[in-house]
Request: fold
Amino acid sequence: MSVEGVVQPVVRSAVFSMVHVPGIVLSGSKPRREIVHSKNGLRQQIVSNFRSFADAVAYPPHQVMLGNLPPEALSQIERPWHLHPMPNALPEGPGGRFIDEATFYAWMARGDCARLLRFNGNLPPAMETALAAHANGAKIQKIDKTAMADAIVNGAEPFFMGDTNPVGVLLPAHDEDESLMAPVLLENAAAKVTGAIALLDLLKKYNDLPVDHLLGCGEEAVGDRYQRGGGNLAKAIGEMAPGSIAGGTDVKSFCAGGIHAMLFGAALIASGMHRRVVVVAGGSLPKLGMKFRGHLQSGYPILEDVLVGVAIDLTADDGISPILRLDCSSFHRLGQGSAAHQMTDALSAGPLYAHHLRLSDVDRYAVELHNPDITEPAGSGNVPFNNYQILAAIAAKKGEIKREQMPEFVASHGMPGFSPTQGHIASALPYLPHAIAGLTTGTMKRVQFVAKASLFLGRMTGASDGASLLIERNPSLISHQQKKGG
Amino acid sequence: MDLEEQGNIARLVASGQHDRMVAMLGTPNPASTRMVAMTLRDGDPSYAGPLAGIPLGLPVYHILEDQVRENIDPDVYEYEVGPMEFVLDRDGIINALQFIREAKAA
Reply:
């Protein structure tokens, strides 16, 4: 495996920031568009179906996100999972932490470098407490009810805490620039702040090495009218961290951005250019409430009420953390075919078979891990299950298993989906904390991370995209454990 | 089948050679197979799209049917369909098509 002169990259940690933001669901793309055209109290219907922070924390898939519950445990819990909250659930775990809406708004104030936030002069006590505790000394600008109403008429985007009175607004940064309209800026600011929370939490956990470079992998478009989507949100996220971080770059490929960024980060380490690279991303505000219609029809709470950020720590080999097999990775190539089975063959079987490994040699596959309780009521199916079925079918076609063994393959190499439908976040990344544990203190040998992207949604190509990365138990750890075992 | 697809099919059929056309489905389950087959034969049952009230009467087949498979190069079939044969509910899809064909005959 090791090649002379090449540094072996490892993945040391992945930390998620989960933020419960029902008040911002109303700014999600779908609710926002539909509430405007609604004549039958749709806004109130949505608000009445919000869940509490405690309910969001106790929601079993969220406990899996936080690393307090293994994904496989969800198979033993009857669906829909919101009817079976976890008793004594904690808002933090080895995979990250959960924060409430008031705390998030305080973080928004902390990240408001353009001074565009205005808070309601008459805030709920919880909001005042959160601003005092978490705004990190940022100046809180308050305006009265009339000024707030005027701002909204002039393009400011309101944000809420439950009821109809906004707790604040984000002002537009320009009168005519569509890229600097308030809804766009709110989306970008939410991504920046959720990414920063995850980054700061990671740096609290590991502060032994300076971060040489940040790679952003989110899906938001940051820039003004002359460079819409120009980006480098990574550096904006890094700016909120204490100390000096050398540089940042955004890596874009829709939902597959995370795996692309991990591959590039690993390559920067392998080349010797950097010793530590952190892949960061914030949450996707437009996707909040995306499938609210299905949830309302099913009598569910609005389940897409959570923003998720992530920070993934890549370093040079530490002799313990799982190694990133750059030689057994894959980018989807033009001409490889975009049908689901063609992509799975190219991304999963392709690199494995090239290294004389079988699909059955991988302990677990992390694919698009969307929570099926969110997607199924809206008619989008069980995304991870469908992906695992295709993997199993390819294993059967290749003669690794018999066709009748497909359900067993799905059960033993797959897992139930548990991620909020946060696009790039949901694409394989939520399994990282579990994989790192399984490949260090657990019994797993290898895990493949696979992400796919619908590039065609941007109307510039008919193509799809994807990338895969194999992560393995560190060989030094294996020899250490063998010696220890006698 | 979305409204844009219905419009494209309506235009294609209107451009001529209706008698030389068949519809080949790649629908993923029995329900969608039945819905699309009905739309292409009798018109849009939801009366929402460009094919509302337009019975094209096209013969409809599914890519998983034996009579279709037998007429396709095995290598091409393997590349384009391959493992999906193991994933999709082939019997349910074929039964759905059979139901539509028999309904037409009746």
In short: The mean pLDDT of chain B is 90.
